Amino acid sequence: MKTPIDLHIHSNHSSDADFTPVELVHKCAAAGIKTMSITDHNSARGNAAAKKAAAQLGINYICGIEIDCTFKGMNLHLLGYGIDENSPDFAELEERNVSQEREASHERLLLTRKLGFEIEEAELNMVSNINDGGVWIGEMFAEILLVKEEYITHPLLLPYREGGERSDNPFVNFYWDYYAQGKPCYVEVEFPDIKEAIALIQNNGGKAVLAHPGNSLKGRFELFDDIVQTGIDGVEVFCSYHDEQMATYFYKQAQKYSLLMTCGSDFHGKAKPAVRLGESGCWAEQKIGESIIKLCL
After folding, report:
1. What is the bridge-based pairing of β-strands 74-81 and 5-9?
2. Residue 175: alpha-carbon gap to chain centroid
3. Which site among 52, 150, 215, 227 is 20 to 30 Å from 261 CA-CA?
4. Number of folded domains in the chain?
5. pLDDT per residue over 74-101, tens digit each?
6. Secondary structure of the chain in the HEC alphabet?
7. Distance between CA atoms of residues 291 and 269, nearest Å
8. pTM (predicted TM-score)
9. CATH number of the structural domain spanning residue 200
């Protein structure tokens, strides 16, 4: 289901995305998107260019970010909307995150080799995002390994090849299966506590929204009640990770706690080829519109 609203889009200021902010604005215009937000991982740098391009094309633009954070030992993503994109707080967050990710990348390489794969630093640097070179994430390992002839029939890679059960978004699915928290190649990076992340967003004029809870909470939906008490402003009810049952559940939770509701595709580009701009499964456009007004206050 496609809507003219997409509040969860990643530019190449995210390690796992391809397009520049301006390219994304033009793609949104072509897709009929009327309201958009670029929400890069721990970076607000893409907003300035996107906001200018959106104004020229008559698109309502909301400055955004997606911050990695933790709650009770669980890694979560927190979207920030209506932020002051020029705040030095976000530049500091990005610098701290990229520094840690570069260190963690070398350990990920060692762990990937322990799975039985041969891969070199030079190969990773060739697919590394130009904005933060030296950061190697799970999607990059998948991109390289899936084209190596010597691994065409490797059993660990078969689920991600055409026709495989994880082939819809092979790169990001490989990340979730091997590099996410609790998986064989996971390397811990120190993220802020959710309350710290909320304060960072709110102190810089924004609203804090829990991203794709149906995926992040991994079935532990009972934690949502506790997360609400941390001070979030809203929840991403509709997204590419949520089926109709999940969306309905978080729609009702948002109503229960008087939270803002948002929708977003979580578009990245090649990392998630099955995800398209404007496709979030949203069936409550009026409610989302009411929330957008509050996001911009």
Report:
1. unpaired
2. 13
3. 52
4. 1
5. 999 999 999 999 999 999 999 999 999 9
6. CECCEEEEECCCCCCCCCCCHHHHHHHHHHCCCCEEEECCECCCCCHHHHHHHHHHCCCEECCEEEEEEEECCEEEEEEEECCCCCCHHHHHHHHHHHHHHHHHHHHHHHHHHHCCCCCCHHHHHHHCCHHHCCCCCHHHHHHHHCCCHHHCCCCCCHHHCCCCCCCCCHHHHHHHHHCCCCCCCCCCCCCCEHHHHHHHHHCCCCEEEECCHHHHCCCCCCHHHHHHCCCCCEEEEEECCCCHHHHHHHHHHHHHHCCEEEEECCECCCCCCCCCCCECCCCCHHHHHHHHHHHCC
7. 27
8. 0.94
9. 3.20.20.140
- Counted residue by residue, the chain has a size of 297
Structural domain contains residue 259:
yes
Q: Is 109 contained in some domain?
A: no
- pLDDT tens track for 129-178: 766 678 999 999 999 999 999 999 999 999 999 999 999 999 999 999 99
Query: Is residue 128 domain-resident?
Result: no
